């Protein structure tokens, strides 16, 4: 008898809880062209109920407490909306967010927003540097910053390229840009700076560089900001990269003896006086 009473009590509790919840259905689309937004987040405003996300067609189904009158809809790049719940299937249109962040760049007197800087400058952030497999910081600028040219005269793997910002500015004087690392002019080799330690690289390319740094900045300025320590939980990251080269077809070449024999056959090699075919003169 006791077990039957407990079972009835549990069923009554479930029915009561179900009666206090209601199901809300709808679709989330982009207000610009009406395309469905997949992965939009739907949350009840106040009360109880679990959140959900829209499917590939923008549809969602969520169970909320009957005391909840609104749901909050959010999507990356879109303005968050709080919408009144209706009994009929809902159609929610989201608009683009107008809160665009201004890119911050490093200049001689600190930092400035790129929108407020009147000179010509380009910024390469840490994410772009990590995507480039380079051992020299300056090689990150190749194909990334407009107006910057890198020239390698020796072709050796460990050689540092020559950096030219907007071409050659002088015939007799130096044409190299001024390098500034963490606010201090740097005259050392760029290979001594680990690209993984760089937070951002700012390239000042016009006359504003000379105004900020004087005559040394006449050929442009490359400002390198390294990463700084932050107070947070300890974290270990591992990045492993590898590669291999496979020569699909090898070309057979002649060695010295075979080359001599071939030249003898076609009559292009004439042995000097005193030498014979048995002489090891190679």
Nutshell version of this structure?
By secondary structure, this protein is of the alpha+beta class. It is built from four helices and 16 strands.
Multimer state:
single chain
Question: Roughly how much helix do the residues carry, as a percent range?
Answer: 10-25%
The profile of the biggest β sheet is: 5 strands, mixed
Order of helices and strands: HEEEEEEEEEEHEEEEEHEH
Low-confidence stretches: 14-19
Give an account of the 3D structure.
The chain is an alpha+beta fold and 282 residues long. Helix content is 15%, strand content 27%. The protein contains 4 helices and 16 strands. The strands form 5 sheets. A 5-stranded mixed beta sheet has the order 10-15-16-13-14. A hairpin with a 2-residue loop joins strand 13 and strand 14. The longest helix has 18 residues. The protein is extended and about 100 Å long. About 2% of the residues have low confidence.
Q: How would you describe this structure in keywords?
A:
alpha+beta, four-stranded antiparallel beta sheet, extended
Could you outline the blueprint of secondary structure elements for this entry?
Layout: H1 2-19, E1 21-30, E2 41-44, E3 52-53, E4 59-65, E5 70-74, E6 81-84, E7 90-94, E8 104-107, E9 110-113, E10 121-125, H2 126-130, E11 148-151, E12 162-165, E13 178-181, E14 184-185, E15 198-204, H3 207-213, E16 221-226, H4 256-266
Parallel strand pairs: 1-7, 13-16
Antiparallel strand pairs: 1-4, 2-3, 2-5, 5-6, 8-9, 10-15, 11-12, 13-14, 15-16
């Amino acid at each position: 008898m006791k077990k039957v009473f407990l079972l009835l009590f549990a069923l009554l509790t479930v029915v009561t809880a179900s009666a206090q919840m209601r199901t809300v259905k709808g679709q989330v689309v982009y207000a610009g062209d009406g395309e469905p937004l997949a992965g939009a987040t739907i949350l009840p405003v106040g009360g109880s109920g679990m959140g959900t996300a829209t499917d590939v067609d923008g549809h969602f189904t969520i169970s909320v407490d009957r005391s909840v009158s609104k749901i909050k809809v959010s999507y990356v790049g879109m303005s968050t909306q709080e919408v009144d719940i209706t009994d009929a299937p809902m159609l929610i249109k989201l608009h683009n967010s107008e809160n665009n962040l201004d890119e911050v760049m490093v200049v001689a007197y600190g930092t400035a927003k790129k929108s407020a800087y009147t000179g010509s400058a380009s910024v390469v952030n840490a994410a772009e540097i990590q995507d480039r497999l380079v051992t020299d910081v300056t090689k990150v600028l190749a194909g990334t910053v407009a107006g910057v040219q890198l020239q390698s005269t020796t072709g050796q793997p460990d050689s540092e390229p020559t950096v030219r910002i907007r071409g050659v500015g002088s015939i007799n004087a130096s044409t190299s840009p001024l390098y500034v690392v963490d606010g201090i002019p740097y005259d050392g080799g760029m290979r001594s700076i680990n690209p993984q330690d760089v937070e951002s690289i700012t390239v000042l390319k016009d006359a504003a560089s000379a105004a900020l740094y004087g005559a040394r900045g006449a050929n442009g300025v490359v400002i390198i900001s390294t990463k700084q320590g932050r107070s947070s939980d300890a974290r270990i990251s591992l990045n492993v990269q590898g590669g291999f080269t496979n020569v699909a077809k090898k070309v057979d070449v002649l060695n010295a003896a075979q080359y001599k024999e071939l030249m003898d056959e076609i009559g292009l090699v004439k042995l000097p006086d005193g030498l014979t075919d048995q002489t090891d003169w190679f």
